């Protein structure tokens, strides 16, 4: 008990007394006015509580070690990040060290998490996490699970609908002695991700093997080429690589969209779809299909997403040059997997690009059956790559959740912005194109009819033929758990030509801008087919095609065969005509044939024929010239972390011309950072090789990727497997 002390001062009733009062105002002492000559009793105020009664936070331990319990249980142990990385809807543990032991009877404590430029409690971007005795699932709450003197361990649960992103963490304490707030430490910032392991999360996926593939696998496969010549290459997603998580959150922040919407995966994938391409918002990758890439990197050089995302982040949001569809899809898949959304890259062969929401692919011909280039905006790409992502769709009727198509390649706008999806695969398959988002465009890509229109003398057009089985074939993605190709065409469309498939097309066409263009199948007694022997020609050799006409009627047919061979970009855009023929054919009531041999370029072959019955038939055949592979040789297939190893990369030029300014590009997650090697020229039909050194930094099965690019030759790449073992305890 403290004792009160009284001090007696003899003060005259004068101005000086008032001065003293002014100096001791505020409770420093107390006094009473007395008559002149009498004393003033001055007493000190009651003593303040001892300083140690104020509860202060001395330190916070988020237990964020990669191999620790938090990161392991949240499946975030692979992220090369020093921050705590957790998934929403799941508890995590943390230690708080206080200035004295916590007393539940008199002390109050809560956590505060803030994200975005203007954190707001009502919008879920300023989260107050109360301390409770019995936490409930699905809510932001914390409970004490252990107390050791001034230290206590908290179990913190989060909402399965919380906004994803980077949160600043502070701890606030209150008691009778006052309030304190811990100082924000960037090292204690928390990354919160979607959680496919949580049943209450909209991205929940119940198969562990699929979660391992579509969330945890940082290596994938990209498919390209044509439906008859499917090519494959390895792509490094690298979603766990150092700096990639920060880069992905930066992409979200750069969008300028409110973080309050980042808890809804439907909204998040639409935001990212727009941000991966550069129109509208200076997104991650700038597209370029011109063939000239001197101001940046050729799209075929990239082997992964890491280098692209790091460059975008480092340059504070300056678009990376250049990309095409597989690059957009690869980077998109990386960002989604990094944020916790199950996703995969998907390739569609004979992929239609509908430019006028007609849900048809329209080809306009003049009176002589020659294409009218200025009207032919629609095209059929040899292949197109986009991304599938997995989520519930509470905004749609039941049954339309699961896989959703999203696309970052800037083809057409959606609500004024270059983006696409998410479109429910179930909706696309059944032709329910009125269900959002962008189902009409995706439906046209995989299942539109190709319709030929001929201009009449009065300038109007009439429909002369439709191909109903040309679009959408061999839709491919990497198989779960292996490097094999998985054909998922049946997820996008019913079997080609089946009654269900035709019903889906008819249903979708009702919502297109040319609903009257839909026609039921008609009998055709003459058919045309273009074929090619074997796997097709290699680069530098001739291509042989066979056009076969069949007459299934009992009568003779006379017709004119219009054929054209042309070099096309993979997007279906015409580059140059190689050969053009018009041949009269007298077809008996049995098979007839006509061959086209010796076309020395990659090309599409289109045929239109007309017989005396006024029937018109058409078809298109695409093929690619196969390029050689890079050969990667390692001195041994197994290596220790930190051990140096040499890799030899060799290549033989298949062309009878010099390859100018050849660039090699190599990268490997956990093996070496991406690098470009400016090699110089490689002579006609000559071989070249170079040796690179690598020092692995991470254990496990690894892939080393390499590509070659020059003005004369692209799409040359190679891969080799390397097993990296961790150092033993006795290793120096």
From TrEMBL:
Listed SMART domains: TGc
Record flagged with keyword Transport: no
UniProtKB keywords: Acyltransferase, Calcium, Keratinization, Lipoprotein, Membrane, Metal-binding, Palmitate, Phosphoprotein, Transferase
Cofactor section: Ca(2+)
GO biological process: keratinization; nervous system development
Residues in Transglutaminase-like domain copies: 317-410
Subcellular location as annotated: Membrane
Molecular functions (GO terms): metal ion binding; protein-glutamine gamma-glutamyltransferase activity
Residues the record marks as active site: 325, 384, 407
GO cellular component: membrane
Gene3D superfamilies on file: Immunoglobulins, Transglutaminase-like
Residues holding Ca(2+): 447, 449, 496, 501
EC number from the UniProt entry: 2.3.2.13
Subunit structure: Interacts with PLAAT4.
UniProt similarity note: Belongs to the transglutaminase superfamily. Transglutaminase family.
Function: Catalyzes the cross-linking of proteins and the conjugation of polyamines to proteins. Responsible for cross-linking epidermal proteins during formation of the stratum corneum. Involved in cell proliferation.
Protein name: Protein-glutamine gamma-glutamyltransferase K
Organism in which the protein naturally occurs: Cyclopterus lumpus (Lumpsucker)
